[in-house]
Amino acid sequence: MKAVEIKPGIYWVGGIDWDLRNFHGYLTQCGSTYNSYLIIDEKITLIDNVKYYLVDELISRISQIIDPAKIDYIIQNHIEMDHSGSLPRIMELCPKAKIYASPKGVEGLPKHYKKNWNFHPVKSGDVLNLGKRNLHFVQTPMVHWPDNMVSYCPEEKILFSNDAFGQHIASSERFDDEYPFNIMMHEAAKYYANIVLPYGSQVQKALEVVGSLEIDTICPSHGLIIRKYIPEILEKYQQWSRNQVDNKALIIYDTMWKSTEMIAHSVHDAFEAKGYQTRKFNLQYTHISDIMTEILTAKYICVGSPTLNNNILPTVAAFLTYLKGLAPKNRIGLAFGSYGWGGQSVGIVENILRECGFEMLDQIKLQYVPDADILKEKEKHLIDQIK
Asked: pTM for this structure?
């Protein structure tokens, strides 16, 4: 695939990871891209790069436009290795290039690559002149690493947004208006839910800065370049970062002999009776990262497990660990499950959901195979609690 011109003299030269299916434990069914951008000006500038195994793609695309040895500046908006993994090869080609990164980035890059390259720290408010264009830098720490920053070119109204507004999508299309909108937004939601969700307050600060800029193109580090649906994705980021939820309930469980599954069905019916959107997920069949995408806008999170060896099922434990790390706020939880004799599982689930900061409904804990009357009684009690 050739380099793609975004605006005169500004090119996408990144790499397409068609086969990627797992990213930090998150299922990436659509693959991904590692976006890198080349600016042709008096100072030839490369913004970010790609994972090490796609470096040949990157160099090939740059070479379609210029000799890579002519690169003067490298902007490293983020030091994580899917953004910086090609630096060693690039610096072999242009050893005199200056690398600009946040102070945390300049601190971290030598720890990754054990090289003393020509580093220049930049902070919010700093401006780098390229000739006809300028790059303005804004630090965005913890969206989603301490070193993160974004770069803005006012002459072109382009925001190089780093991990913000990204999606894990591999495609031959480069722009949002060339690709199905609903799939792009779903992948943007999944990306936010599984990577950015813990950092809502930091995202809010970044959105304040973005709101003050005149932008007609957002160039993220992953996925499609956004030029048509900027208002739509900004609106979603406002919603997600504020933990605004819909009247939606998720029922998430695993089961041994179907008793916990019977309770899950009853919980589902209770929320449906109150007019809630409901989603039911058996952890044997649904990946936790897909569930997190639904949690992004869910008010109620109901988690069930039978008792196994005085504990919970491993699938439920893995999900709760993942959930706790991503730390959604303003949610209401419910713990439920069946047991034979010990019965510890429901309490364990409830304690973890409380540790997540959730307000809790009364737990549902039933022994052996629940009969229809008991399920109806529990369902009615749950209906009375749902707001």
From this structure: 0.95
